[in-house]
Design a protein that fits this description.
Bound molecules: nickel (II) ion
Number of helices: 4
Structural class: alpha+beta
Distance between the termini: 6 Å
Radius of gyration: 19 Å
CATH class of the largest domain: Alpha Beta
Strand content: 25-35%
Largest sheet: 4 strands, antiparallel
CATH superfamily of the largest domain: ACT-like. Chain A, domain 2
Mean pLDDT: 92
CATH architecture of the largest domain: 2-Layer Sandwich
Shape: elongated
Number of strands: 4
Helix content: 40-55%
Low-confidence stretches: none
């Protein structure tokens, strides 16, 4: 971790008003913390664009377990990629619907491919990949 540097930012007053309002809504104590998070998000997005190194993510899937063969298909796809899946959580949302959350770690390209394969499986109602980082290289 380097030393802390202060720098000035020139902004249109209306844009700054909107930023301050947003910081309040998101419970940031200072503008600096919000700007640090914006920079970190940009760095993580860049990591994912390059998808070279080890990345981490979460995938949520919602599906109806009555759909013929669906649970079995999703399980097979996950076993094929077991090296990427650190943990899974299965919640029975109601009589019909299940929510599954997968914690993924590995090559970014492989994580995206697995996520696309699971999300596009017939019968999956909603799927969302949350892209994050292993934290290496971020301060
Ligand atoms: Ni279930």
């Amino acid at each position: 971790m380097g030393k802390t540097i202060r720098f000035g930012v020139s902004l249109d007053s209306e844009l700054l008003d909107k930023f301050d309002k947003l910081c309040g809504e998101k419970s940031y104590q200072t503008r600096s913390e919000a700007i640090r998070d914006l920079i970190r998000n940009m760095l993580v997005e860049k990591e994912w664009d390059e998808t070279e190194g080890e990345m981490a993510g979460t995938l949520s899937l919602v599906y109806d377990h009555h759909q013929s063969g669906l649970s079995q298909r999703l399980t097979e796809l996950q076993h094929d990629a077991h090296h990427l899946i650190m943990s899974t959580l299965h919640v029975h949302l109601d009589h019909d619907n299940c929510l599954e959350v997968l914690v993924l770690k590995g090559n970014g390209k492989d994580i995206k491919e697995l996520a696309h394969r699971l999300i596009s499986t017939k019968g999956v109602k909603h799927g969302k990949l949350g892209l994050t980082t292993t934290g290496d290289g971020l301060v």
